[in-house]
Specification:
- The chain is an alpha/beta fold and about 500 residues long.
- The protein is built from 16 helices and 22 strands.
- Strands 6-7-8-3-9-10 form a six-stranded mixed sheet, with helices on both faces.
Length: about 500
């Protein structure tokens, strides 16, 4: 029996002038869990799409179960995959969705589909529509989908991103069971602890290149962190500022939120952001950063501890109230949280201010369409939003231009504080640079900015101060001028 399941040889992939993968070589073995880890933009998902056959390498070759992708077959044989967010019919049940998909595949029997749902912790008899599913339930349904055709190789790209700690343990139990049956798994995650916990071997990608492949038993979090970051500090193009004497925009004091949940809680968290500074939150995704952003924008309230805005302690946590207190937010998911896709660019630009006298009369009952259109045209020019018309649906824009719409809306509200979560994720270099320039300009106008990003380069480039978050705790504070890279990398692993 062939031991090598996936054989990647000298694979490169470029999109125009952008080189995403460079001379990648690695092998994955039968009956093993092979972890892939790397920072955002390291090429993990593109590599998986090349292995599956969804993308063709610019150079090199890939074979899966001895079949060369692109010559012997178009797509990887005997392979199931969960890559990016799974898509389902929202108004059908989970069971109905899987049955439809089974008809398109090998025609799995109803009882086999039901068994798959039970395997991932879902009730096949439940009448709940997928539109009513939580993110975790959708993710588990996606895993069941990946298993529909009884694959020998399973590729899981960030399968735990929306799962609770208990759900993650359930996922790992499923993975171990599959491996015990002789199947092979590629597991991609930002969460170093999870990768180390479940993997037999781990490959680290950095900037599209393989840094190394190690046996999990022969490494530790310190070594992996060093491999992931592994670069000399390059001076930031932006001036770093000391605003310790400036007015405090937001202050958290000994805040707890579900602190028993290591990946989704906050544990005795204290921090300040002054006006006119950027405070960067560094850390591997899934260490409480999402909950921190939700807390400071009023989406959730703490179990204990206090939060103050501009020196005023808050007792009521409500997003609308936080907006009125001068908090703006660039959310981590621009489509689900930042924009209303079926509305126009103009309408999205005035979502926070449509009830004001400038854009409506009668307390928002009658919109001033010309005023809104004129304002949108002004914002499109100011923020370089590239569109054919401000009346087109915002979902028709590129990701970079969608992000500019959000940034324009949030910065033009004259905020005291901007919470920016992964503001340049998925953007090209030009769009990312524009977003960063606008954030620096806002900082220089006196806006306090909390920057939450899993992109370490972005944190280093933008931050006046750097705080490291690990399992919901602040592990260290560092100046943004000459930050100690190795010390920060260790803090990101809890050392």
């Amino acid at each position: 029996m062939r031991k090598i399941v996936v054989d990647v040889q000298h694979v490169s992939k470029s999109f125009g002038s952008e080189q995403v993968l460079e001379n990648v070589t690695l092998q994955m073995m039968r009956g093993k869990i092979h972890g892939i880890i790397g920072r955002n933009g390291s090429g993990k998902t593109v590599l998986m799409k090349c292995i599956c056959g969804f993308l063709r390498p610019t150079a090199g070759k890939i074979s899966v179960f001895g079949k060369n992708i692109g010559t012997d077959c178009d797509f990887a044989p005997k392979t199931g995959m969960l890559i990016e967010a799974p898509g389902f019919l929202p108004h059908e049940t989970g069971m109905s969705n899987l049955l439809w998909l089974a008809k398109l595949g090998n025609g799995a029997r109803c009882e086999d589909v039901a068994a798959l749902m039970r395997l991932v912790g879902l009730d096949p008899a439940a009448k709940k529509r997928v539109s009513q599913y939580s993110l975790g339930m959708r993710q588990r349904l996606g895993i069941a989908q990946a298993l529909l055709d009884a694959p020998e190789l399973l590729i899981l790209d960030e399968p735990s991103a929306a799962l609770t700690d208990i759900e993650v343990e359930g996922l790992f139990a499923i993975m171990r069971k599959l491996v015990s049956e002789g199947k092979s798994i590629i597991f991609i995650s930002h969460k170093m602890r999870e990768v180390m916990h479940i993997s037999d071997r781990i490959t680290v990608l950095r900037l599209g290149e393989v840094v190394g492949t190690v046996n999990c038993a022969d490494t530790d979090s310190k070594k992996l962190a060093s491999m992931m970051i592994g670069r000399e500090l390059v001076a930031s193009q932006y001036e770093k500022k000391d605003c310790s004497d400036a007015e405090i925009a937001v202050e958290l004091s000994h805040v707890d939120y579900h602190k028993e949940s290591k990946h989704n809680g906050l544990n005795d968290m204290s921090l300040t952001v002054h006006r006119g500074e950027i405070v960067g939150i560094a850390g591997v995704d899934g260490n409480g950063q999402t909950q921190l952003a939700q807390l400071i924008t009023g989406v959730i309230s703490p179990d204990s501890g206090t939060l103050s805005l501009s020196g005023q302690r808050l007792a009521i946590f409500d997003p609308h109230g936080f907006i009125e207190d001068g908090v703006s937010h660039v959310p981590e998911d621009r489509n689900l949280q930042g924009l209303i896709g079926d509305m126009s660019i103009a309408e999205n630009l005035v979502l926070k201010s449509s009830g004001t006298a400038a854009f409506s009369s009668g307390g928002g009952l009658l919109l001033k369409k010309k005023a809104i259109a004129d304002y949108a045209e002004e914002m499109a020019e100011k923020y370089d939003i590239r569109c054919t018309s401000v009346e087109q649906d915002v979902r028709s824009l590129s990701g970079g231009n969608q992000q500019k719409v959000i940034l324009a809306r949030e910065l033009e509200s004259d905020p005291v504080l901007l919470v920016a979560t992964h503001p340049a994720r998925g953007l090209d270099i030009g769009a990312a640079s524009f977003i960063h320039d606008q954030m620096i300009a806002a900082r220089d106008r006196g806006v306090g900015i909390l920057l939450i990003s899993a992109d370490f380069d972005e944190i280093l480039e933008m931050s006046d101060r750097i705080l490291v978050c690990f399992e919901g705790q602040i592990m260290g504070e560092y100046s943004g001028k000459n930050p100690p890279i190795e010390e920060i990398s260790l803090a990101m692993t809890g050392k």
